[in-house]
Design brief:
mainly alpha
Length: about 475
């Protein structure tokens, strides 16, 4: 795996191989030209040094805002896939009785696979669009419009919770997939734009964004479990569940509008605007609108980041192959005992909650430990080794089994271990190349590189989701 550029990629001044703390003069700005605002000042400026260095991130507000943006970027996907009991109820053959056992149907059996495909294919197209627009359309416009579209789709989904669809399940199924396609495209346009902006900040901000994405999954899993425990009716539980998502999307809109008002973020956004091809932009936009500005140089970016991009691609490709389509179908071997643990809470806890908590821990670990480095050959080797997770999940107690009848891991502890391992490696090995990518290119290409890395991630999800459907049908 020695496909790294023969010339070692020079890390831009935002990269420091250890976690960055919250201090007035950050490690990535200690050299003469490393403050983003330095390019705005004469080389021998008599301005005091304190002015040339970045202001303090007071109360870690910028870190928290990007953390919330990370939660919001994957919140739509997580809220759709985690509401498994609700979709089973809506797509079953006896939705007239909310308290009854759902009867098996093709729609409910393969819903997660269809959901994964519907969410990832349009996401790839939207990220290509995002790359084309990165120098043509303000990040403010891309981010805010994406959030408003996500909010609109979730409001529609919330309203449909209380609508009886027992006589039009196929239409509801198609409409749901259409909503997933729209909201996934919008959320990827949002996440790609936000991650591109974070490339102009120190690495701690990129890490906050990626950790927030994992926390989004954890929060959705917790919300699902709480709703199951509190609400007596499936629709009441789903109503509270999706209303939670509506409120959080509104919170994301509010906090993003707050971002340019903070001195710390304005400092880096101003520097980004001065170095971007689109020129200066007002307010919080990190890129200019730039009439007639061409797309960023893709070949130049890929020459520096293609190994990191392929690593991101394969990490998320393997993860989506088994989560959630396979992992959420693994049932307790003691399900026939009738206990509430094995019938109601086993899948939400072992599949969704444990995976997302482990994923969050893996992403958060990159704040303190960043090995292997961006030029190491060990990173892609570790990524390829995750292929072993696929057969491990296939031979757990996945039900129903129509073709592959052998169950090698016939104990409830196995899916617990495998989900934790899948989430931990996904978080750590997926985060490292994502935060390395924008730091191994010149500063003016940081945002475009962030979009490219997001494209590799989403492409991995799209390819993996197609294979997940084949895996589910083969079992």
């Amino acid at each position: 795996m020695d496909g790294i550029d023969p010339v070692q990629p020079s890390l831009n001044s935002s990269y420091v191989p250890t976690a960055l703390g919250n201090h007035n003069v950050s490690d990535d700005e200690e050299n003469e030209d490393q403050s983003p605002s330095a390019s705005l000042l004469p080389k021998h400026s008599s301005v005091p040094l304190a002015v040339r260095y970045s202001p303090e991130d007071s109360y870690c507000l910028v870190y928290i805002i990007f953390f919330l943006m990370g939660i919001g970027s994957l919140l739509p996907w997580n809220f759709f896939i985690t509401a498994k009991h609700y979709w089973l109820y809506k797509l079953s053959n006896n939705t007239h009785h909310s308290g009854g056992e759902e009867e098996r149907s093709d729609l409910s059996d393969y819903f997660e696979s269809y959901l994964a495909i519907a969410s990832t294919v349009p996401s790839v197209l939207c990220l290509i669009l995002n790359y084309v627009l990165v120098n043509r359309l303000s990040s403010n416009v891309r981010i805010l419009w994406s959030l408003f579209v996500i909010l609109l789709v979730f409001v529609v989904t919330t309203v449909l919770v209380k609508v009886d669809v027992s006589d039009c399940r196929m239409e509801f199924f198609a409409g749901t997939l259409a909503c997933v396609a729209v909201v996934s495209g919008a959320s990827n346009l949002f996440s790609g734009s936000v991650f591109g902006i974070s490339g102009h900040f120190p690495m701690r901000i990129s890490q906050a964004l990626i950790s927030g994405q994992a926390m989004g999954g954890t929060l959705s899993a917790v919300a699902s479990i709480v709703d199951l425990a509190v609400a007596e009716d499936v629709t009441d539980s789903a109503l509270a569940y999706f209303l939670t998502a509506d409120v959080f999307i509104l919170l994301c809109i509010f906090t993003y509008l707050l971002l340019p008002k903070l001195a710390y973020s304005r400092h880096y956004m101003l520097a980004a605007a001065s170095t971007s091809p689109g020129g200066n932009s007002e307010g919080g936009a990190a890129t200019g609108t730039g009439n007639g500005v061409s797309a960023p140089p893709l070949q130049r970016i890929l020459r520096k980041t293609w190994v990191l991009g392929l690593s991101v691609f394969y990490v998320f490709c393997v993860s989506i192959m088994v989560f959630p389509a396979v992992s959420s179908g693994i049932q307790s071997v003691n399900k026939d005992s009738g206990s509430i643990w094995t019938t109601t809470y086993f899948v939400p806890l072992t599949s969704f909650l444990l995976y997302n908590v482990a994923d969050f821990c893996g992403r958060q670990a990159t704040a303190w430990l960043q090995v292997p480095g961006p030029t190491s050959q060990v990173l892609p080797i570790l990524v390829v080794c995750r292929s072993a997770m696929i057969p491990l999940f296939m031979f757990c107690n996945y039900q129903p089994r129509d073709h592959l009848h052998t169950v090698l891991f016939a104990h409830d502890v196995y899916p617990v271990i495998f989900n934790c391992l899948l989430g931990l490696t996904n978080g750590y090995l997926g985060t490292l190349p994502m935060i390395y990518g924008p730091k191994v290119v010149p500063r003016e290409l940081a945002e475009a590189t962030g979009v490219v890395m997001s494209f590799f991630l989403t492409l991995g999800l799209a390819v993996g989701s197609a294979f997940s459907a084949l895996i589910v049908h083969s079992i």
